[in-house]
Amino acid sequence: MTAETSQTLDRGLRVLKLLADTDHGLTVTELSHKLGVNRTVVYRLLATLEQHALVRRDLGGRARVGLGVLGLGRQVHPLVREAAMPALRALAEDIGATAHLTLVDGAEALAVAVVEPTWTDYHVAYRAGFRHPLERGAAGKAILAARRPPQPPGEDTDAPGYTLTHGELEAGACGAAAPLLGVTGVEGSVGVVMLADVVPERVGERVMHAAREVAEALR
Questions:
Q1: What percent of the chain stands above pLDDT 90?
Q2: What are the record keywords, sorted (predicted)?
Q3: CATH architecture of 7-65
Q4: What pLDDT score does 1 carry?
Q5: What are the domain boundaries of the chain?
Q6: What is d(CA 28, CA 129) in angstroms, rounded to the nearest whole number?
Q7: Which end of the chain has fewer beta carbons closer than 10 Å to its terminal beta carbon, N or C?
Q8: Among the listed residues 96, 115, 120, the one whose alpha carbon sits nearest the alpha carbon of residue 190
Q9: pLDDT, the chain, mean
């Protein structure tokens, strides 16, 4: 900690990050151990966060992320979209296909940013706000692929780092997408959708490159 930073705020943010990384919540004792502070400090932090609905405690006393974070989360999409636009524009122009950034929203994939190429005679219409199940389409499937645990060395895998689909969301359209990796708190993918029978070979690698660019912009 430096003189310009707040130790209490830092600890409160660390509490939120710890709770966001668990599905079953954490006890005061567990938080005390992870933060390296005594239980009294943890109690005060939780009480303050509860006042702002950022943390809730269940009947068993385990602390979990509260519904108040949803209000903060609504402001995330514009920030993420702004950071992703340069890479999406370059991808759309390079490939000549509609490029998109898709984030997880519950059990659905939500397109939060879309860029159409300027030089093509036709392209797939794909709008920001479009939703579809994670299990359908390249964007959602790329996200699900990133959730799978790494394969043990030597085992075969069908995951080249990107996902290809055909006709799953729109007849005659195919897609390619790669997941965003290494971005804390953001789960999503970058991809393209085009009218074609087969995705050209170079598209997969180009989409992966764009996903890395977006991830770097968000770090």
A1: 65
A2: DNA-binding, Transcription, Transcription regulation
A3: Orthogonal Bundle (1.10)
A4: 55
A5: 7-65, 73-218
A6: 39
A7: N
A8: 115
A9: 89
Amino acid at 100: H
Highest mean pLDDT among 75-84, 143-152, 198-207: 198-207
Given a contact cutoff of 8 angstroms between Cβ atoms, the answer to whether 100 and 140 are in contact is: no
DSSP 111-163: EEEEE--SS-S------TT-EEETTSSHHHHHHHHHHSPPPPTT------SSE
Per the DSSP assignment, residues forming a β-bridge with 132 are: 109
For residues 55 and 145, what is the distance between their CA atoms, to the nearest angstrom? 30
**Long-range contacts formed by 8-12: CB under 8 A, 24+ apart:** 8/45, 11/35, 11/37, 11/41, 11/45, 12/45, 12/48, 12/49
Integer CA distances (angstroms), 52 to 40, 43, 68, 72, in order? 19, 15, 7, 11
Residues of the chain with pLDDT > 70: what percent? 92
Q: Could you report the per-residue pLDDT of 99-131, keeping only the tens digit for each?
A: 999 998 888 999 999 999 999 988 888 888 899
